[in-house]
Amino acid sequence: MTARTKRREKDEQGWEAPHTAWLKVNVDGAFDSVASGDGVASGVVIRDEAGSVQLSAWKFIGADQDRVRRKWRL
Q: Which residue from 29, 19, 15, 14 is spatially nearest to 49, judged by alpha carbons?
């Protein structure tokens, strides 16, 4: 099984709603040293049990690796 196949299976599982009166927080991050010139991005989405977005936010940090390490204290 390849990494691509595993990812496809994971994507097909879909999003599961939280219990009633709960919110679900999904976060993601990415680093791209080629296309964005050493950029880091992160994002967050908060949804209720109906799947309605309550909050979404993202941030792109175009930076060299030293700045990224300092920012994230790596």
A: 19
In angstroms, the CA 58 to CA 41 distance is: 7
Beta strands 24-32 and 53-62, pairing class: unpaired
Q: Where are the domains of the chain?
A: 17-72
Per-residue pLDDT of the chain (74 residues; tens, 9 = 90+): 566 666 656 556 788 999 999 999 999 998 876 665 667 789 999 999 999 999 999 998 766 666 666 776 65
Give me the count of residues in the chain: 74
- What amino acid is encoded at 42 in this protein? S
